[in-house]
Amino acid sequence: MAQIQRFHVGPRLSETAVHNGTIYLAGQVPDDTSQDIRGQTTQVLAMVDRLLAEAGSDKSRILMTQIFLADISEIGAMNEVWDAWIPPGHTPPRATVQAAMANAAYKIEIVVTAAAA
Description:
By secondary structure, the chain is an alpha+beta fold. Helix content is 25%, strand content 32%. The protein is built from 2 helices and 6 strands; from the N terminus they run βββαβαββ. The chain has helices at residues 37-54, 75-85, and strands at 4-9, 14-19, 22-25, 62-69, 94-98, 108-115. The protein has a 6-stranded mixed β-sheet with strand order 1-2-3-6-4-5, covered by helices on one side. Strand 2 and strand 3 (22-25) form a beta hairpin. The radius of gyration is 14 Å and the shape is globular.
C-alpha cells in the first residue's frame, strides 16, 4: 500500500498531501487581503512555489490548476501575474471560475495538483 505524506496538518485540513508521486495542494488564499487582485495573486503563487518546493517539486510540474475568483471581471489582471509566473512551455490545464469565497476579503483561491520531481 502506497504511503500518504502530509505537510502542515491541521485539525480541518492539510496544506499538502503526496501520494504515488502526485502532490495535492489545498486551496491557497492570500495572507494580506488589503492587496488588489495582482497583489493577492502574487502572494498565492508564492505560497504554491513554497509548498511545491517543500514536497520536492516546482511549478514546471503542475498537472492541473483550479482558480477561483471572487470577481471574474478581474481575470485579466490575474492572468498578467499568472503569465509572468508560469514557465513558458509548462502551462498546465486550468479552470478559472467565479465563486463565493469563504472570506469576503479574498479575491482569489488557487488549487494545484502537481507531479513530484
